[in-house]
Amino acid sequence: MQPQPADNAARSVIDIAKLSLTFETGDGPVHALSDIDLNIGAGEFVSFIGPSGCGKTTLLRVIADLEAPTGGTISVNGMSPHEARLARAYGYVFQAAALYPWRTIAENIALPLEIMGHSREEQAERVRRNMELVDLDGFERKYPWQLSGGMQQRASIARALSFDPDLLLMDEPFGALDEIVRDHLNEQLLKLWAKTDKTVVFVTHSIPEAVFLSTRIVVLCPRPGRIYDIIDNPLPRDRGLDIRETAEFLKVAHRVREGLRAGHSYDD
Amino acid sequence: MTEAGTFQTPSRSPFAGLMSGTAGPVIVVVAAIIAIWYLAAVLLNTPFQRDIYQRGGIENPPLAQLVADTLSQPRPVLPAPHQVAEEIWKTTAEKSITSKRSLVYHSGVTLSSTLLGFIIGTGLGIALAIGVVHSRVLDKSLMPWIISSQTIPILAIAPMIIVVLNAIGITGLLPKAMISTYLSFFPVTVGMVKGLRAPEAIQLDLMKTYSSSTAQTLWKLRLPSAMPYLFASMKVGVAASLVGAIVGELPTGAVAGLGARLLAGSYYGQTVQIWSALIVAAVLAAGLVSLIGLTERVVLQRMGMAR
């Protein structure tokens, strides 16, 4: 089913209300997240953008149950994040590919399938399908170190997609890659999103990346980490890299930049 | 650019080719050790030789005779390398393996308890490490004991292990192997604790997002990450095992094994026999360590971790 952007009844995947997270450190409490309210509907592509220390990665980790909030409520697929994690509700892509060096690319992609107990035939079929999806067919028997950084990150995306979660959580997946590879992977990711109809939550610190990819952009600011602005992206879902030259794109990018500047209180 | 060219021409030094491979440096080191050994043998055996000359009424023998005589004493303070080599040849190649005077037979006895102790020690080490990594209680309670166990001198505890085990009816190979175990489990435990904790936070988080069980994380992530650490600590452990087996043969008055040869040699002042047993033990240890090194290469290659 194709979720309609205008459909108000679109199923809500992530509901966050009054969420806060405070780390207790030796120097006193650090308010990593404070008073976060956010709903993400099925089929959306939402980006979290903000300067370092704004809590964007922490917020993603809270959704993934890798971090526990200290206040407020959050539900993922109508469950607590913990239940959602146990139900394997999401695929997570980290900043680094984190492929296991003793496994070939195909074996790396099969890792979650092995853990989740899929049959051998099922594993082989899903590995084949997802390697094709990220354009890595032919590299099944290579080891991670034999692949470039961009290809490794594509393999890690295939791994996150292999068990077909409806929700994809991506934490600056292309942050360590060069501009050209990044553009290419952004384009591929959009196609993949269109093809698979997944809900994507994407953390980035690149304005063009956020505007190019997202249906909605959440601008966060630091100390304490909080939401400064939520921007609906009016660009059509079907977009190519050229769209970055259009006035509409630049207008959205400008608003994001303004938000980042205003939310970031430079003392100097 | 011409200057760069001259740098690339091979050096004319006669040692350049010798020192470039693996064999060259090893040969040079061995030659140096043998030379120093001969020098030391002459110096250490001279006082006794002078006594003999005095008693025989020989005054001021020529230097060449003194050197030749110091290197051919039946019970020298320090036997010359060729005396040890001759003894090893006589007690290995020229003796049947079943003979009580064959060093091959004695090595076999020591080797079997070394290997049994090493296998038990490695198993125990891995098991302890898995426990320590997964349980805070074990980490806090067990680790200090594991470390303090190694501060007890093995020579002090070895006879007691043998006596206690004998008292409860365990005799033969096992008591000796226990001492090997005692020495070899420690490096394996320490190495494996480090190895099982080697995965990065991101790799552990990844397993968590799959809600993988502790056993799955151990099997699919922690153990493979620990393999290089396991082999490194096994190399230390196997050498310690051999020391343990030899030490275990000393207090028991064992009749067979390299330790028994050392003991018999020292009873009768047979220094050549002691040194032969020592050299054979060293060769055995080197062989065991390189066998593990070879296994490491093959295993890591097959795991795709060697490049």
Automatic annotation (TrEMBL), chain A:
GO molecular function, a single term: ATP binding
Regions annotated as coiled coil: none
UniProt KW Nucleotide-binding keyword: yes
Entry keywords, A to Z: ATP-binding, Nucleotide-binding, Transport
The organism's place on the tree of life at top rank: Bacteria
Keyword Nucleotide-binding found: yes
Residue intervals of the ABC transporter domain: 11-247
UniProt family annotation: Belongs to the ABC transporter superfamily.
Annotated protein name in UniProt: ABC transporter ATP-binding protein
UniProtKB/TrEMBL annotation, chain B:
Membrane topology: Multi-pass membrane protein
GO cellular component, one term: plasma membrane
Domain (ABC transmembrane type-1) ranges: 103-296
Segments crossing the lipid bilayer: 23-45, 109-132, 152-174, 229-254, 274-295
Subcellular localization: Cell membrane
Domain of life where this protein originates: Bacteria
CDD domains to which the protein is assigned, alphabetical: TM_PBP2
Gene Ontology biological-process annotations: transmembrane transport
Broad class of where this protein is predominantly found: membrane
Key words, A-Z: Cell membrane, Membrane, Transmembrane, Transmembrane helix, Transport
Sequence similarity: Belongs to the binding-protein-dependent transport system permease family.
UniProt cross-references to PANTHER family, sorted A to Z: ABC TRANSPORTER PERMEASE PROTEIN HI_0355-RELATED, ALKANE SULFONATE ABC TRANSPORTER-RELATED, MEMBRANE SUBUNIT
Name the UniProt record assigns to this protein: ABC transporter permease
Organism whose genome encodes this protein: Stappia taiwanensis
